Amino acid sequence: MSLFKFFQLLQYSSLLSAMRSSPWVFPVIASIHLMGLALIGGAVLLVDLRLLGLGMRNQPLPQIARYAERWFVVSLAILLPTGILQFMCFAATKYYYLTAFWVKMAALFLALVFTFAVRRKLVMAAETRMSPLQSKLVATVSLALWGAVAIAGRVIGLP
Amino acid sequence: MSCELESAHNSQHTVHNSELRTSMSLLRLCEWLAATPGSIALHESRYLYLVVLSVHVLTLCLFVGTAAIVDLRLMGLTMQGVRVSEVMERLLPWTAAGFLLMIVSGGLLFYAAPLLRYQNIFFRAKMAVLVLAAVNVWVFHSTVDRRRTEWDSDPIPPRGARLGAGVALVLWAVLIVLGRMIPYQVYWFDCNKQPQPAILNLLAGCITGSR
Which of A92, B27, B189, B208 is deepest in the core (most CB within 10 A)? Predict the structure, then answer.
Protein backbone atom coordinates (compact mmCIF):
# COMPACT_ATOMS: atom_id res chain seq x y z
CA MET A 1 0.00 0.00 0.00
CA SER A 2 1.38 3.37 -0.96
CA LEU A 3 1.77 6.13 1.61
CA PHE A 4 -0.92 8.15 -0.14
CA LYS A 5 -3.40 5.26 0.02
CA PHE A 6 -2.61 4.92 3.73
CA PHE A 7 -3.27 8.64 4.26
CA GLN A 8 -6.59 8.27 2.39
CA LEU A 9 -7.53 5.33 4.58
CA LEU A 10 -6.86 7.45 7.69
CA GLN A 11 -8.72 10.52 6.48
CA TYR A 12 -11.81 8.65 5.31
CA SER A 13 -12.12 6.32 8.28
CA SER A 14 -15.55 6.54 9.92
CA LEU A 15 -14.10 8.11 13.09
CA LEU A 16 -12.42 10.92 11.16
CA SER A 17 -15.41 11.48 8.91
CA ALA A 18 -17.55 11.90 12.03
CA MET A 19 -14.99 14.32 13.49
CA ARG A 20 -14.93 16.45 10.36
CA SER A 21 -18.71 16.75 10.27
CA SER A 22 -18.51 19.06 13.30
CA PRO A 23 -16.82 22.41 12.67
CA TRP A 24 -15.84 22.59 16.37
CA VAL A 25 -13.87 19.40 16.90
CA PHE A 26 -10.87 20.51 14.81
CA PRO A 27 -10.32 23.91 16.51
CA VAL A 28 -10.79 22.34 19.96
CA ILE A 29 -8.14 19.72 19.18
CA ALA A 30 -5.93 22.49 17.75
CA SER A 31 -6.41 24.48 20.98
CA ILE A 32 -5.30 21.54 23.12
CA HIS A 33 -2.32 21.13 20.77
CA LEU A 34 -1.47 24.81 21.44
CA MET A 35 -1.63 24.21 25.21
CA GLY A 36 0.93 21.46 24.67
CA LEU A 37 3.02 23.88 22.58
CA ALA A 38 3.02 26.41 25.43
CA LEU A 39 4.02 23.79 28.00
CA ILE A 40 6.76 22.21 25.89
CA GLY A 41 8.06 25.75 25.31
CA GLY A 42 8.40 26.15 29.08
CA ALA A 43 10.05 22.75 29.53
CA VAL A 44 12.55 23.26 26.67
CA LEU A 45 13.33 26.87 27.65
CA LEU A 46 13.94 25.93 31.29
CA VAL A 47 16.90 23.75 30.29
CA ASP A 48 18.14 25.72 27.28
CA LEU A 49 18.08 29.07 29.11
CA ARG A 50 20.03 27.42 31.94
CA LEU A 51 22.57 26.11 29.38
CA LEU A 52 22.91 29.67 28.05
CA GLY A 53 23.61 30.95 31.57
CA LEU A 54 20.17 32.55 31.81
CA GLY A 55 16.94 31.63 33.61
CA MET A 56 17.56 29.26 36.57
CA ARG A 57 21.32 29.77 36.30
CA ASN A 58 21.99 29.42 40.06
CA GLN A 59 20.67 25.84 40.23
CA PRO A 60 22.61 22.69 39.28
CA LEU A 61 21.94 21.80 35.65
CA PRO A 62 21.12 18.08 36.22
CA GLN A 63 18.48 19.03 38.81
CA ILE A 64 16.81 21.57 36.51
CA ALA A 65 16.95 19.04 33.67
CA ARG A 66 15.20 16.40 35.78
CA TYR A 67 12.46 18.84 36.84
CA ALA A 68 11.96 19.92 33.23
CA GLU A 69 11.92 16.40 31.79
CA ARG A 70 8.74 15.43 33.62
CA TRP A 71 6.83 18.34 32.05
CA PHE A 72 8.51 17.76 28.71
CA VAL A 73 7.05 14.23 28.69
CA VAL A 74 3.64 15.55 29.78
CA SER A 75 3.80 18.05 26.88
CA LEU A 76 4.57 15.27 24.41
CA ALA A 77 1.64 13.27 25.79
CA ILE A 78 -0.59 16.27 24.96
CA LEU A 79 1.03 17.16 21.61
CA LEU A 80 1.37 13.76 19.95
CA PRO A 81 -2.27 12.52 20.14
CA THR A 82 -3.72 15.94 19.26
CA GLY A 83 -1.17 16.33 16.46
CA ILE A 84 -1.96 12.90 15.03
CA LEU A 85 -5.70 13.66 15.12
CA GLN A 86 -5.21 16.96 13.28
CA PHE A 87 -3.07 15.17 10.71
CA MET A 88 -5.65 12.42 10.25
CA CYS A 89 -8.42 14.98 9.64
CA PHE A 90 -6.84 16.10 6.37
CA ALA A 91 -4.07 13.54 5.76
CA ALA A 92 -4.73 12.82 2.10
CA THR A 93 -6.18 16.14 0.92
CA LYS A 94 -3.81 18.56 2.67
CA TYR A 95 -0.87 17.16 4.64
CA TYR A 96 0.38 14.78 1.95
CA TYR A 97 1.02 17.73 -0.38
CA LEU A 98 2.40 20.17 2.21
CA THR A 99 6.17 20.62 2.27
CA ALA A 100 5.83 22.24 5.72
CA PHE A 101 4.32 19.01 7.07
CA TRP A 102 7.25 16.88 5.86
CA VAL A 103 9.72 19.51 7.10
CA LYS A 104 8.00 19.41 10.49
CA MET A 105 8.17 15.60 10.65
CA ALA A 106 11.88 15.64 9.79
CA ALA A 107 12.60 18.42 12.32
CA LEU A 108 10.52 16.62 14.96
CA PHE A 109 12.46 13.40 14.43
CA LEU A 110 15.79 15.23 14.71
CA ALA A 111 14.62 17.26 17.73
CA LEU A 112 13.47 14.13 19.60
CA VAL A 113 16.68 12.24 18.81
CA PHE A 114 18.81 15.22 19.82
CA THR A 115 16.84 15.81 23.04
CA PHE A 116 16.78 12.22 24.27
CA ALA A 117 20.02 10.85 22.85
CA VAL A 118 22.35 13.85 23.06
CA ARG A 119 21.11 16.70 25.27
CA ARG A 120 19.69 14.43 27.96
CA LYS A 121 23.00 12.55 28.43
CA LEU A 122 24.97 15.79 28.57
CA VAL A 123 22.75 17.70 31.00
CA MET A 124 21.92 14.81 33.33
CA ALA A 125 25.56 13.92 34.01
CA ALA A 126 26.23 14.49 37.71
CA GLU A 127 29.46 16.34 36.98
CA THR A 128 28.79 18.36 33.91
CA ARG A 129 31.99 18.52 31.96
CA MET A 130 30.68 20.81 29.26
CA SER A 131 32.57 24.00 28.61
CA PRO A 132 30.46 27.21 28.44
CA LEU A 133 30.90 27.11 24.67
CA GLN A 134 29.65 23.51 24.44
CA SER A 135 26.67 24.35 26.67
CA LYS A 136 25.74 27.25 24.43
CA LEU A 137 26.09 25.04 21.35
CA VAL A 138 23.77 22.37 22.78
CA ALA A 139 21.18 25.00 23.75
CA THR A 140 21.37 26.64 20.33
CA VAL A 141 20.91 23.34 18.47
CA SER A 142 18.00 22.41 20.74
CA LEU A 143 16.29 25.80 20.33
CA ALA A 144 16.88 25.73 16.55
CA LEU A 145 15.39 22.22 16.16
CA TRP A 146 12.34 22.85 18.36
CA GLY A 147 11.93 26.29 16.77
CA ALA A 148 11.90 24.61 13.34
CA VAL A 149 9.22 22.17 14.54
CA ALA A 150 7.08 25.04 15.88
CA ILE A 151 7.52 27.29 12.83
CA ALA A 152 6.85 24.48 10.34
CA GLY A 153 3.79 23.58 12.43
CA ARG A 154 2.57 27.16 12.22
CA VAL A 155 3.11 27.19 8.44
CA ILE A 156 0.92 24.05 8.12
CA GLY A 157 -1.93 26.03 9.69
CA LEU A 158 -1.62 29.05 7.39
CA PRO A 159 -4.35 29.62 4.77
CA MET B 1 -17.20 46.08 3.98
CA SER B 2 -20.97 46.15 4.37
CA CYS B 3 -20.93 46.64 8.14
CA GLU B 4 -19.09 49.92 7.72
CA LEU B 5 -21.90 51.27 5.58
CA GLU B 6 -24.49 50.04 8.06
CA SER B 7 -22.71 51.56 11.02
CA ALA B 8 -22.43 54.91 9.27
CA HIS B 9 -26.20 54.76 9.00
CA ASN B 10 -26.47 53.74 12.67
CA SER B 11 -24.51 56.68 13.93
CA GLN B 12 -27.42 58.96 13.04
CA HIS B 13 -29.68 57.15 15.54
CA THR B 14 -30.17 58.68 18.97
CA VAL B 15 -28.37 56.81 21.73
CA HIS B 16 -30.55 56.36 24.81
CA ASN B 17 -28.64 54.83 27.67
CA SER B 18 -25.07 55.09 28.93
CA GLU B 19 -24.29 51.42 28.34
CA LEU B 20 -25.21 51.75 24.72
CA ARG B 21 -23.26 55.00 24.55
CA THR B 22 -20.12 53.24 25.80
CA SER B 23 -20.44 50.46 23.26
CA MET B 24 -21.19 52.99 20.54
CA SER B 25 -18.06 54.99 21.33
CA LEU B 26 -16.01 51.77 21.32
CA LEU B 27 -17.60 51.00 17.98
CA ARG B 28 -16.77 54.49 16.70
CA LEU B 29 -13.17 53.98 17.80
CA CYS B 30 -13.09 50.68 15.89
CA GLU B 31 -14.57 52.36 12.83
CA TRP B 32 -12.02 55.13 13.02
CA LEU B 33 -9.17 52.60 13.44
CA ALA B 34 -10.45 50.48 10.55
CA ALA B 35 -10.32 53.49 8.26
CA THR B 36 -6.69 54.39 9.03
CA PRO B 37 -4.22 53.61 6.25
CA GLY B 38 -2.12 51.39 8.56
CA SER B 39 -5.08 49.17 9.38
CA ILE B 40 -6.06 48.82 5.73
CA ALA B 41 -2.46 48.10 4.71
CA LEU B 42 -2.05 45.40 7.39
CA HIS B 43 -5.46 43.91 6.54
CA GLU B 44 -4.63 43.73 2.86
CA SER B 45 -0.96 42.76 3.22
CA ARG B 46 -0.10 39.42 1.75
CA TYR B 47 2.51 38.23 4.26
CA LEU B 48 2.86 40.78 7.07
CA TYR B 49 -0.47 39.86 8.71
CA LEU B 50 0.46 36.16 8.66
CA VAL B 51 3.90 36.93 10.11
CA VAL B 52 2.29 38.90 12.97
CA LEU B 53 -0.21 36.06 13.52
CA SER B 54 2.61 33.50 13.62
CA VAL B 55 4.63 35.60 16.09
CA HIS B 56 1.50 35.86 18.28
CA VAL B 57 0.97 32.07 18.27
CA LEU B 58 4.61 31.06 18.74
CA THR B 59 5.09 33.54 21.61
CA LEU B 60 2.86 31.13 23.56
CA CYS B 61 6.03 29.11 24.17
CA LEU B 62 7.73 32.05 25.88
CA PHE B 63 4.78 33.69 27.63
CA VAL B 64 2.51 30.83 28.71
CA GLY B 65 5.48 28.39 28.78
CA THR B 66 7.43 30.30 31.44
CA ALA B 67 4.26 31.41 33.28
CA ALA B 68 3.16 27.76 33.48
CA ILE B 69 6.50 26.72 35.01
CA VAL B 70 6.13 29.44 37.69
CA ASP B 71 2.51 28.36 38.30
CA LEU B 72 3.58 24.71 38.58
CA ARG B 73 6.20 25.72 41.18
CA LEU B 74 3.50 27.60 43.10
CA MET B 75 1.39 24.42 43.02
CA GLY B 76 4.31 22.40 44.36
CA LEU B 77 4.53 20.37 41.14
CA THR B 78 8.04 21.30 39.97
CA MET B 79 11.37 22.60 41.35
CA GLN B 80 10.17 21.84 44.88
CA GLY B 81 13.78 22.18 46.06
CA VAL B 82 14.16 25.72 44.72
CA ARG B 83 12.86 28.80 46.56
CA VAL B 84 9.71 30.28 45.00
CA SER B 85 11.39 33.73 45.02
CA GLU B 86 14.29 32.44 42.94
CA VAL B 87 11.97 30.81 40.40
CA MET B 88 9.91 34.00 40.07
CA GLU B 89 12.94 36.27 39.95
CA ARG B 90 14.69 34.22 37.26
CA LEU B 91 11.69 33.31 35.08
CA LEU B 92 9.16 36.15 35.34
CA PRO B 93 11.32 38.59 33.29
CA TRP B 94 10.97 36.07 30.41
CA THR B 95 7.23 35.89 31.02
CA ALA B 96 7.07 39.70 30.95
CA ALA B 97 9.03 39.81 27.67
CA GLY B 98 6.61 37.24 26.24
CA PHE B 99 3.64 39.26 27.47
CA LEU B 100 4.97 42.39 25.78
CA LEU B 101 5.35 40.49 22.48
CA MET B 102 1.81 39.11 22.91
CA ILE B 103 0.33 42.57 23.50
CA VAL B 104 2.17 44.12 20.54
CA SER B 105 1.39 41.29 18.09
CA GLY B 106 -2.15 40.90 19.46
CA GLY B 107 -2.69 44.66 19.24
CA LEU B 108 -1.60 44.56 15.59
CA LEU B 109 -3.98 41.64 14.88
CA PHE B 110 -6.78 43.76 16.35
CA TYR B 111 -5.63 46.81 14.40
CA ALA B 112 -5.75 44.80 11.15
CA ALA B 113 -9.50 44.14 11.51
CA PRO B 114 -11.05 46.22 14.34
CA LEU B 115 -14.67 45.80 13.20
CA LEU B 116 -14.34 42.04 12.75
CA ARG B 117 -12.83 41.68 16.23
CA TYR B 118 -15.46 44.02 17.70
CA GLN B 119 -18.18 41.71 16.36
CA ASN B 120 -16.48 38.47 17.46
CA ILE B 121 -17.91 36.70 20.48
CA PHE B 122 -14.67 34.75 21.11
CA PHE B 123 -12.54 37.90 20.95
CA ARG B 124 -14.86 39.60 23.46
CA ALA B 125 -14.73 36.59 25.78
CA LYS B 126 -10.93 36.46 25.42
CA MET B 127 -10.62 40.10 26.51
CA ALA B 128 -12.90 39.41 29.49
CA VAL B 129 -10.79 36.38 30.50
CA LEU B 130 -7.64 38.48 30.11
CA VAL B 131 -9.10 40.93 32.66
CA LEU B 132 -9.91 37.97 34.97
CA ALA B 133 -6.30 36.75 34.62
CA ALA B 134 -5.02 40.22 35.58
CA VAL B 135 -7.36 40.30 38.59
CA ASN B 136 -6.11 36.84 39.61
CA VAL B 137 -2.48 38.02 39.47
CA TRP B 138 -3.40 41.13 41.48
CA VAL B 139 -5.26 39.09 44.14
CA PHE B 140 -2.29 36.70 44.43
CA HIS B 141 0.23 39.54 44.86
CA SER B 142 -1.91 41.44 47.36
CA THR B 143 -2.75 38.44 49.56
CA VAL B 144 -0.73 35.22 49.97
CA ASP B 145 2.31 36.55 48.06
CA ARG B 146 2.74 39.33 50.67
CA ARG B 147 3.67 36.64 53.19
CA ARG B 148 5.95 34.83 50.75
CA THR B 149 8.96 34.97 53.14
CA GLU B 150 7.02 32.58 55.42
CA TRP B 151 6.60 29.88 52.75
CA ASP B 152 9.33 30.73 50.23
CA SER B 153 11.20 27.46 50.76
CA ASP B 154 8.16 25.19 51.23
CA PRO B 155 8.19 22.37 48.67
CA ILE B 156 4.38 22.72 48.54
CA PRO B 157 3.23 26.36 49.00
CA PRO B 158 0.10 27.19 51.06
CA ARG B 159 -3.37 26.56 49.71
CA GLY B 160 -3.91 30.21 48.64
CA ALA B 161 -0.83 30.15 46.42
CA ARG B 162 -1.72 26.77 44.92
CA LEU B 163 -5.25 27.98 44.23
CA GLY B 164 -4.07 31.21 42.57
CA ALA B 165 -1.62 29.28 40.38
CA GLY B 166 -4.24 26.67 39.47
CA VAL B 167 -6.73 29.39 38.50
CA ALA B 168 -4.01 31.06 36.41
CA LEU B 169 -3.26 27.79 34.55
CA VAL B 170 -6.97 27.29 33.80
CA LEU B 171 -7.28 30.90 32.59
CA TRP B 172 -4.25 30.52 30.26
CA ALA B 173 -5.85 27.39 28.81
CA VAL B 174 -9.19 29.19 28.32
CA LEU B 175 -7.39 32.13 26.67
CA ILE B 176 -5.72 29.72 24.22
CA VAL B 177 -9.04 28.07 23.32
CA LEU B 178 -10.84 31.41 22.88
CA GLY B 179 -8.00 32.81 20.76
CA ARG B 180 -7.99 29.75 18.52
CA MET B 181 -11.78 30.00 18.14
CA ILE B 182 -11.80 33.64 16.91
CA PRO B 183 -11.69 32.72 13.19
CA TYR B 184 -14.30 29.96 13.68
CA GLN B 185 -17.24 32.20 14.60
CA VAL B 186 -18.43 32.24 10.97
CA TYR B 187 -19.11 28.48 11.15
CA TRP B 188 -21.60 29.26 13.91
CA PHE B 189 -23.16 32.52 12.80
CA ASP B 190 -22.25 35.57 10.76
CA CYS B 191 -23.14 39.11 11.86
CA ASN B 192 -23.36 40.06 8.20
CA LYS B 193 -26.05 37.44 7.54
CA GLN B 194 -29.12 38.62 9.43
CA PRO B 195 -31.51 37.79 10.98
CA GLN B 196 -29.67 36.07 13.84
CA PRO B 197 -31.01 35.30 17.34
CA ALA B 198 -31.15 38.54 19.38
CA ILE B 199 -28.94 37.05 22.12
CA LEU B 200 -26.14 36.31 19.64
CA ASN B 201 -26.42 39.80 18.13
CA LEU B 202 -26.16 41.26 21.62
CA LEU B 203 -23.23 39.10 22.81
CA ALA B 204 -21.24 39.49 19.62
CA GLY B 205 -22.15 43.16 19.30
CA CYS B 206 -23.34 42.65 15.74
CA ILE B 207 -23.80 45.95 13.95
CA THR B 208 -27.38 45.55 12.73
CA GLY B 209 -29.82 48.06 11.28
CA SER B 210 -32.03 47.98 14.39
CA ARG B 211 -29.44 49.49 16.75
Answer: B27
